[in-house]
Amino acid sequence: PKTIYLKDYTPAPYLAKQVNLSFNLLPGKTIVTSEVRYVKNPVGVSSDLVLDGEEQTIVSVAKNGVPLSDYTVADGQMTIASPGDEFTLTIVSEINPEANTALEGLYQSQGTYCTQCEAEGFRRITYYQDRPDVLSVFTVRIEADAKAYPVMLSNGNLQEEGGLPDGRHYRVWHDPFPKPCYLFALVAGDLVRVADTFTTMTGRNVDLHIYVRAGDEGQCSHAMESLKKSMKWDEEVYGREYQLDLFNIVAVSDFNMGAMENTSLNVFNTALVLAHQETATDSDFMSVEGVIGHEYFHNWTGNRVTCRDWFQLSLKEGFTVFRDQEFSADLNSRAVQRIDDVNGLRRLQFPEDGSPLAHSVQPDQFIEISNFYTKTIYDKGAELIRMQHTLLGPQTFRKATDLYFDRFDGQAVTCDDFVQCMAEASGRDMTQFFRWYKQAGTPTLVASSHYDAAQQRYTLSFKQSQPETPGQTDKQPLHIPIAVGLLAADGREIVPTQVLEMTAREQSFTFDGIAAKPVPSILRGFSAPVKLETDLSDDDLRLLQVHDTDGFNKWEAGQTLALRTIQRVMADPQADISQFIADVGTLIAQGLSGQGDKALLARALSLPMIGVIGQYQPVIDPAAIDAARSSILTQIKRAHKDALAALYEANANPGEFTITPQAMGRRTLQAAVLEILTTTNGTGCAARAKAHYDAADNMTDRVTALSCLSDSTQPQRAEVFADFYTRFEKYPLVVDKWFSLQAIANREQIFDDLASLRAHPDFNIKNPNRVRSLYSAFAINNPVKFHDPSGKGYAFLRDAIIELNSINPQIAARLVTPLREWKRYTPALQAQMKAALQAVLDTPNLSGDVFEVVSKSLN
Ligand code: HT7
Ligand code: ZN
């Protein structure tokens, strides 16, 4: 496989003025006719036209209507030497969507034709310059059997439709906005439509259509409401209006990722559209809202202004994640949103940044771009935008984004262009800030403090350091925004949040007029994606946990105390942790008094997950972490059993389902309490969890009960899992949950359970959601059994990667993720993880996708 370098970028040799595509959808084959008007690019460096194309049979090629044979095809590219300054090229080719299990290009999902062209799927449809900087106006004609495929959609507006002989029909779609081919989409199937409208800020009416399979139309209202909220939010917060008269969303069951932002024809994984209280959890409802927002926001950040090349992927993804996070924060609880986002970053992006696959937000090289849809590009990328927002402040940031949209609408640009707009709008020099885009690895920030009573002066000192990452040894200091507030010993805030700008490796900041030694609240709102080390005492943290005005840092103080406690118990299982246990009692009492936000209390009562704790260990031993964590949970339960039971009852289901933040907060608090109450997995625990299941009138409560029973060996476990399956076997997304909730079980029989699940008639290796529900759930959310000393967990994953390599290389490559960080584990586990990776690498006919991640992991 070939490595592609950012430094080798050159503009496309030809511009595509107009693209006419015609699809004849036939049983067993699809005939694609592509007619493109090419014009030589004045800034192009070559005169040869080089078109990308894969997995298709060329039927004919013609230039200006005259058959052409003077071209070569090799290594997935067609080259036509010096074809002239302006000409029309017509290529007819044949593809086979029914046989396409990679789910890239044109494929079928349960009989519905659909496309996935980002990043390089368009080349599986026709020969074209498959790169994001070639923008063109597309007209698309689709022809198919009218009965089997009554719905036929593409981007833009419907221009023409009609009947044809032999029961066939056609539709012509035209998208007036030039776009790169990765935003092209086509859907044809027998789907039902849910319709609504939105009136834009200038009074235009936009038709909103969601297409789903018959029977699913009752599960679309949350997605539709989320779409309307997204459209309004983008107008209010960014001044961005939708430009076309129609916005379509289509939900399909077989999809490699969550969703795709194709212009005016978003294609979604059903998991991120369908939501009903009976079948979707609160967390599903939140994900639907967030991803509907995310794809809609791409209309401006990705589509109207797109990427020059795939090294700029974070230009659209980082910015759009930041936008969807802020959208969700505005609609729900800002502190809860931030806690969940940071938890995700620490659990999934920090490990990536510390692994052999660490890469910068604007990478310099890749082999397979689909492997670069990573937590770093998305979530660290969003943190980079957030820091710019923090540094500039909301008004100047808005000025800068206005400038960005005005200047680059209709263009394909770079991350440098974005940051330049930040610099121009603010008058700041952002050169040093740009290092965040180029340097991989999570920086460490060490904070210390000094109080000078005589001078009434308080000094905060910081040291920053960047770890070495593959190919990057010489790291320069970063420009780090550190949001800080100061509290007095009685908990009063004496200095409200201010942003300190750190630019040197070591830097101090002074606060004058401070009458007594304060307690600092550092990195409020997690103002930079760093690992923070402070010299705060346990008492300082306890003060912050109670009094900090910053919701994120209030929670963070409690988590730091929990981490310290876990570390103490890991070092000495008999360690005295009575103070920590007593503090948890205070939190429970607070909950019983009805004070405070329930969602925040639920998070405060939850110990950090094993994956997060591992990030703070020099060598990760999941079983040892789990033992300490379980011992603490058991002590909490024993000490506060009655209070916890009372808190559980006080938050019982009131019998009326809503998805307001308050109702979700109540459910999540009850779930956190039930998790502690059932932690010992005895008979009483199982009875409690079953009672929770029996009282449930919604999926959130059912999943809570199942997850509390998952590790159990009591008879109620089998009863409840069987009932759940029988009730919901017709709902694939719920069956996914049934698979996952068993795959995460930390119990002896797990490897037998996994084998039965793999052999279950509902398991389908070709469906990515089902694969994720078994394999990713196990490998990511069952750290103890995945890292079982027998190596059986690694072998289970290894076999799936090898099987999927030839079926769906993108999904196979993603499954490698939990093995990448092998060097962080104990020597015994390392050896087994490495052996599993090596076995994959030794597999014949390894796809480029899998080869890249496995070979880099082993480096
Ligand atoms: N922009 C979309 C990316 C995407 C994708 C990438 C590779 C393979 C399959 C894919 N499906 C969608 C998703 C997004 O970030 O909005
Ligand atoms: Zn995106």
UniProtKB/TrEMBL annotation:
Q: Which reaction equations make up its catalytic activity?
A: Release of an N-terminal amino acid, Xaa-|-Yaa- from a peptide, amide or arylamide. Xaa is preferably Ala, but may be most amino acids including Pro (slow action). When a terminal hydrophobic residue is followed by a prolyl residue, the two may be released as an intact Xaa-Pro dipeptide
The protein, known as = Aminopeptidase N
Per UniProt, residues of the Peptidase M1 alanyl aminopeptidase Ig-like fold domain are 441-535
Q: Which family does the record claim for this protein?
A: Belongs to the peptidase M1 family.
Q: Which Pfam families does the record associate with it?
A: DUF3458 (PF11940), DUF3458_C (PF17432), Peptidase_M1 (PF01433), Peptidase_M1_N (PF17900)
Native species of this protein? Methylophilus glucosoxydans
Cite the NCBIfam families for this sequence. pepN_proteo (TIGR02414)
Q: Name one GO molecular function term.
A: alanyl aminopeptidase activity
What keywords would UniProt list here?
A: Aminopeptidase, Hydrolase, Metal-binding, Metalloprotease, Protease, Zinc
Q: Which residues form the Aminopeptidase N-like N-terminal domain?
A: 27-183
Q: What is its EC number?
A: 3.4.11.2
Occurrences of domain Peptidase M1 membrane alanine aminopeptidase (ranges): 223-435
The enzyme's main class, written as a single word, is hydrolase
Q: Which cofactor does it need?
A: Zn(2+)
Domain Peptidase M1 alanyl aminopeptidase C-terminal: start-end pairs? 538-859
Taxonomic placement: Bacteria, Pseudomonadati, Pseudomonadota, Betaproteobacteria, Nitrosomonadales
Q: Which InterPro entries match?
A: Aminopeptidase_N-like_N, Aminopeptidase_N-like_N_sf, PepN_Ig-like_sf, Peptidase_M1, Peptidase_M1_dom, Peptidase_M1_pepN, Peptidase_M1_pepN_C, Peptidase_M1_pepN_C_sf
